Amino acid sequence: MNAIAQMTPLGQIAGMGSARPGLSKKQKAAIIVRLLSSEGAKLPLSDLSEDQQTALTEQIAAMKLIDKGTLQDVVAEFCEELEAVGLAFPGGLDGALSLLDGQLSASAANRLRRLASGSSRADPWERLAGLSADVLLPVLQEESTEVGAVMLSKLSVAKAAELLGKLPGDKARRVAYAVSLTGNVAPDTVHRIGQALAQQLDAAPPKAFDVGPVERVGAILNYSAAATRDCVLKGLEEEDQVFADQVKKAIFTFTNIPARIEPRDIPKILRAVDQAKLIVALAGAKGADEKAVEFILANMSQRMAASLRDEMAALGKVKDKDAEEAMGLVVNAIREMEAAGEIFLVAEDEE
């Protein structure tokens, strides 16, 4: 019986023909649902319209006893209709979109999602719950406190906590308090809010890049030679000071280590760097980079720091090219550890 329940569209139950004179379609549907329920099957009755759910429930409430002969006739007809089914299609646009996921163009998928979200039967919160926190965050930041509270209440606890942690402190406190006031919000209102948010997200044009221009330029300059990086930043400052300042904050170089690395993470980072290259980087550092050297040496054991200082002295003069390459390896190791979640960079203070 469980297999029958999983294979059969609910609409087919409601549309069965006559197995025995005197039985209506609603009565036969009620018999099948009652039989499957008694076998422990969980039918997705919520997929039916509210009118159909109401009519089915009222019919079940009105029925008393069914003789074995009638039951056998209804089940036999039901099974015959099942065997006649060759192919079942997903119900509604939501089901079709799930079936064709990854096969439609982005513009066509967005258009169809807008149509689906306008359906009274579609639950917009199911779609919103499947989106990442990074996608939902801009919407949460722009919406009112009350709408934000409803959004957090409908998402999973883990995702709601992640979003709350990314909001500015004052906004986070107001939204968290507003959650306590959502107890009397009507279901229809929550549904309409979900529809509006889904339509807002679907209306946004697809992005060609996963990250913004600031992050892309910053990532490129992270791997550029110091002379190239300085030259590009100077040019950006002349063209757009605001953009240049944002890019500077996205850049992480050897010079940034004291400001953006937690002291406790230094031993972990050093274990990920070849010691010979580390010595070259430390010995060849000049100017602003010397502060990074002292920061690194100050946050390890005194014995290890003394040993590294001896090796740096023994190495003698280091070519600028070799020093920059070695410092790049240290920075790359830090970036890889950050991407893996092994360490976290300290956010630079807003000026």
Q: How would you describe this protein?
A:
This protein has 351 residues and is mainly alpha-helical. It has 4 domains: 83 residues, no CATH class; 99 residues, Annexin V, domain 1; 45 residues, Single alpha-helices involved in coiled-coils or other helix-helix interfaces (Up-down Bundle), CATH 1.20.5; 98 residues, Orthogonal Bundle (Annexin V, domain 1). It is 68% helix and 0% strand. It starts with a helix and ends in a 12-residue tail after the last helix.
Provide keyphrases for this structure.
single chain; about 350 residues; mainly alpha; Annexin V, domain 1; Single alpha-helices involved in coiled-coils or other helix-helix interfaces; 4 domains; 22 helices; about 0% strand
What topology emerges from the helices and strands here?
Elements: H1 2-7, H2 10-14, H3 25-38, H4 50-62, H5 68-84, H6 92-99, H7 106-117, H8 124-129, H9 133-142, H10 145-154, H11 157-166, H12 169-179, H13 187-203, H14 213-222, H15 226-239, H16 241-250, H17 257-260, H18 266-271, H19 275-284, H20 289-298, H21 302-315, H22 320-339
Helix pairs in contact: 3-4, 6-7, 7-13, 9-11, 10-12, 14-16, 15-16, 19-21, 19-22
